[in-house]
Amino acid sequence: MDTSQPLLQPITVGSLNLKNRVWMAPMTRSRAANPENKVFELHEEYYRQRASAGLIISEGSQVSPQAVGYINTPGIYSAAQTEAWKGVAKAVHEADGHIFIQLWHVGRMSHPDFHGGELPVSASATNPNSKSFTPNGFKDTVTARAMTLEEIKQTIEDFKNAAKNAVEAGFDGVEIHSSNGYLFHQFFNTSSNHRTDEYGGSMENRARLLFEVIDAIKEVMPENRIGLRLNPSLHGVFGMTLDKDTIPTFDYIINRLNDYDLAYLHLSEPFTDVSEVPFAEQNIAKRYRPIYKGTLVINSAFDQKSGNEVIEAGLADAVAFGKPFISNPDLPERIAENADWAEWDQNTFYTPGEKGYTDYKRLEEAKVG
Known about the structure:
The protein is an alpha/beta fold. The protein has one domain: TIM Barrel (Alpha-Beta Barrel). It has 12 helices and 14 strands. The chain has an 8-stranded parallel beta sheet. Helix 2 (79-94) links the parallel strand 4 (56-62) and strand 5.
């Protein structure tokens, strides 16, 4: 057993003492198949199995009915949803783990099928020209409706209420999902934000919603229990484009985050064809480590070797693993043993039930057949 690896060293994040730097990335698994959009016992087992992660970041959870954009995904806006999440947080804590819940609003990536025929909302009336996974199958996205100022203020309150519910449910903190082409990202990007009011135009205005949400959440939980996820170089997916304003906007946002005492900043390396991404933006950790002074978490296609190397090089403080945690519920133990990682079954990523969800074997189980 090799516990001297950088990935396996403990780390203090805010007021939390985490046992390692092998974090579980947020992943939509579409198992909340019920009218209330809430989790149930199957989710408790799924997250409990993975409690050896230094930190679990839950699947994205909607902050309001308007935020919904994918079938069978949970929310954290109602009393019933909050009560259901209590079982997940309790299961993880009883297994000596820590868990943040990811707060989510998909914006224009939604579809009228989720909203009684009404249009989804976004920064402006734009169409990502993508697909939405609706109750009636995959459908083309539509041109969203620009949010009114009143709706923006309500959305800020929705995130605050979701964070308050997360505290009640027993989560250790929250991660604001401000990446991957969803609502906040739609405000950041000039291709999707054509507003001429205080939420459009300048970098400061396009980032305003994010900072107003952080300030609102601070009112109901400590700053150092708030994490944030960004994907600065996303291109060609969810309607996002890279232009001359993209990286400067993220430089501004990440510089300004230094004014806060956040738990961490979670960045994704490009997960699109890097040939489409300028070389200077291909190594996100290398670009933003000198800029961001807090705990920096990096994600996307890391393995044991590259994960250890990025921490050892001082480019990140922890690595968030996604798909490897699906098929290796005991991923930190496998890293300690220098054991092979089990392959995941992509056909069961978004299907109901325990198959491909809670039936992957731990290392000791695999050894005995």
